[in-house]
Specification:
Blueprint lengths: L19 H12 L8 E3 H22 L4 H14 L1 H7 L5 H8 L4 H10 L9 E7 L7 E7 L16 H17 L5 H16 L5 H4 L8 E3 H7 L5 H8 L8 E4 L2 H8 L7 H16 L5 H16 L7 H25 L2 H24 L5 H12 L2 E5 L17 H17 L21 E3 L4 E5 L14 H18 L20 H19 L13 H26 L12 H12 L2 E3 L1 H10 L5 H9 L3 H7 L20
Parallel strand pairs: 3-5, 6-8
Antiparallel strand pairs: 1-9, 2-3, 4-5, 7-8
Helix pairs in contact: 1-22, 2-3, 2-15, 3-15, 5-13, 6-11, 7-8, 7-14, 8-13, 16-17, 16-19, 16-21, 19-21, 19-22, 20-21
GO biological process, one term: protein processing
Cofactor: Zn(2+)
EC number: 3.4.24.-
């Protein structure tokens, strides 16, 4: 049996009672540089890099000796991305026809039609569109319409003083890209783009409001959709985009006031700004597939300025990303043949079963929840669907035409095929086998409208999971991840969906108020936290509350599940560490990570996850078992008075 981690790598100068995160990860934090082409480092990133190398071997094998037509297409995509000589020769030429179409815009109706015509080219629009189960009727698909139209990460970047320098850099970046595309007066054009995007952003909902499952559920008929923004002819847009009007017969409008706000911006006097905005969106969207001057200029802002990354990722890595974005499940089908052993699935099924049982025990014993709501919570838990490793069937890419000498064309055709696949869902039964991540993705997720937890094959390896290590380490790492994803079904937003996936209030008013009170206490805890390299900026407790509830419940439930798995087994120490200590040390090891300062600021603004150190330390401060495992006292830095500790689900 392997050890799972090496205690000799811990920082003996830092006590776990004072800083569990740095006790486990201190030497690594000091000695491990962030790779120059990365904004972060850590266990997740290491696994991503390892998966990337494996995928490279798959893709290069497909390019050299394809076994079938699907593999030939994989090879074509990669070959087109790696054909740098041809890409350099073309420069911005692949954009000529679309730029000419933008030049011809002479009215708001023609602007709308042109935006529609570019919908299949990967060009950022003023509206976003996707197909998903209807939160009100989760047994059917419905179109969702969301706010869009900005090039900075978030609406706050256009208004907050702390982002003034980034706004200036963004304006200069837009000018540089337009100049590369051959436009004169690029500086004036960039001014118009920034002014227009600032106006667009003024109608955006902020990140906290966008999380609200109730506020963002606004089912509209086609007529009601059009009434929100009369100047935007939805029928003309859809016809230009090749979208059947049945797709828009009903739509969930996530931010209705955003569409209303667009009405004031769609006027003839703004056409010069709209043309420049659309030119910028076209060039920006195509930049990764154009010559090096576009690629490097794009990286200079989005990589260096926004994330603090030193170097552009090597071309082969970007090529792998392009292939995965275009035919990810075709690659995944090959990946799981060798990278997903059968014992991993059986061990995961055992872990998940114990985690679900732990949730059942916890829910039955909750002191703040009534029996009525407990029964509904248990019914939702019983309806959970776990998905492990990979889908039962993989996406079909027969409709995709590829050409090893046409990178931009390949990108657009892949976008169009993916779009058609999504649009075809309207009117069809829900595909309950569909996955929203590929098997080679190092991540996991909970989908509330399917009430499912999903664990791709790539995350089922150390430091998160190892079939050969003791329960303490597996439950502290992957067990807490499983618990976290289940917990999303009971966080501030997931708890508003019932077991069928419908947005439904299954709570009594008193129980909901009790839950909201506990969540408010967690928000207050995190609002006071500021990570290193953040220049005093703190965590947004309201933005991160869902993930923080997931972390807190995930670890607490994982500990209870670990105890269930340990029943009747000896609790012998390993390397002088008790099973309980190893459980919490594995948790800390799983969150090993560091982030560049610029990326830290960006994430604090837009990321619903807390920084790694708080995902580790702030969670254990609320869990009594941690205090017992390490003998934490009021004199220790991680001590939190019992009255201040928050327990929601475990």
């Amino acid at each position: 049996m392997t050890q799972g981690f090496d205690p000799t790598t811990f920082d003996t100068q830092i006590r776990p009672q004072d800083d569990l995160f740095r006790h486990v990860n201190g030497p690594w934090l000091r000695d491990t540089p962030i790779k120059p082409d990365r904004a972060t480092a850590g266990g997740f990133v290491d696994l991503v890099d390892e998966a990337e190398i494996l995928v490279r071997s798959i893709v290069e094998s497909c390019a050299a000796e394809p076994e079938d037509d699907e593999q030939r297409k994989i090879g074509d995509l990669f070959a087109s991305f790696m054909d740098t000589e041809r890409i350099e020769q073309l420069g911005a030429a692949p954009l000529a026809d679309d730029l000419a179409a933008i030049d011809a815009i002479d009215s708001i109706p023609s602007l709308v039609r042109t935006i529609g015509a570019l919908e299949r080219s990967g060009v950022n629009s003023i509206i976003g569109l996707y197909i998903a189960p209807d939160r009100g009727q989760p047994d059917r698909y419905v179109t969702h319409v969301v706010q869009a139209g900005i090039g900075l990460p978030d609406e706050s970047y256009y208004r907050d003083e702390q982002f003034a320098e980034i706004r200036d850099a963004y304006r200069d970046h837009v000018a540089a890209m337009l100049q590369l595309a051959g436009f004169d007066d690029a500086s004036d054009r960039a001014d118009r783009v920034l002014e227009l995007e600032t106006a667009i952003a003024s109608h955006h909902w902020d990140r906290v409001a966008v999380r609200d499952a109730q506020k963002t559920y606004n089912l509209k008929t086609f007529a009601e959709l059009g009434a929100l923004t009369p100047a935007f002819d939805w029928q003309a847009w859809a016809q230009a985009a090749g979208i059947d009007l049945s797709v828009l017969a009903e739509a969930v409008v996530s931010q209705p006031s955003y569409l209303e706000g667009l009405q004031g911006l769609l006027d003839e006097g703004s056409l010069p700004a709209w043309r420049d905005w659309l030119r910028w969106q076209l060039v920006h969207g195509a930049a990764p597939f154009l010559s090096d001057d576009f690629v490097e200029t794009n990286f200079a802002f989005y990589g260096k300025t926004l994330q603090g990354t030193d170097e552009l990722r090597p071309r082969w890595k970007r090529g792998i990303g392009f292939v995965e974005g275009s035919m990810g499940e075709a690659v995944g089908k090959i990946y799981v043949r060798t990278e997903y052993p059968a014992e991993a699935k059986s061990r995961m099924e055992e872990l998940i079963a114990n985690l679900l049982e732990a949730y059942r025990i916890s829910i039955r014993e909750l002191p703040w929840m009534s029996d009525e709501t407990k029964q509904r919570a248990l019914a939702k838990l019983d309806a959970f669907t776990p998905k492990i490793g990979h889908p039962e069937s993989f996406k079909d890419y027969a409709a995709l035409e590829t050409d090893p000498a046409d990178l931009v064309g390949n990108a657009r055709r892949a976008q169009s095929v993916a779009m058609d696949r999504e649009l075809a869902k309207i009117g069809q039964p829900i595909d309950r086998d569909e996955w929203y991540m590929t098997p080679q993705t190092v991540n996991a997720y909970y989908n509330p409208t399917m009430n499912e937890i999903v664990f791709p094959a790539a995350i089922l390896q150390p430091p998160f999971f190892d079939a050969g290590i003791d329960d303490a380490v597996n439950y502290g790492a992957i067990g807490s991840v499983i618990g976290h994803e289940i917990g999303h079904g009971f966080d501030d937003q997931g708890s508003q969906y019932d077991g069928t996936g419908a947005l439904s209030n299954w709570w009594t008013d008193e129980d909901r108020a009790a839950f909201d009170g506990l969540a408010a206490r967690i928000i207050a805890q995190y609002d006071d936290l500021s990570p290193e390299n953040a220049d005093g900026q703190t965590v947004n407790g309201a933005l991160t509350i869902g993930e923080n509830i997931g972390d807190l419940g995930g670890l607490g439930i994982a500990y209870l599940a670990f105890k269930l798995a340990q029943e009747g087994k000896p609790a012998d120490p390993i390397d002088g560490l008790t099973p309980d200590q190893r459980f919490f040390l594995a948790w800390a090891r799983a969150w090993q990570g560091k982030v560049r300062p610029a990326e830290t600021i960006r994430r604090l603004t837009v990321d619903p996850h807390s920084p790694p150190e708080f995902r580790c330390n702030q969670v254990v401060r609320n869990i009594d078992a941690f205090y017992e495992a390490f003998g934490v006292t009021p004199d220790d830095a991680l001590w939190l008075d019992p009255a201040e500790r928050v327990t929601i689900w475990a």
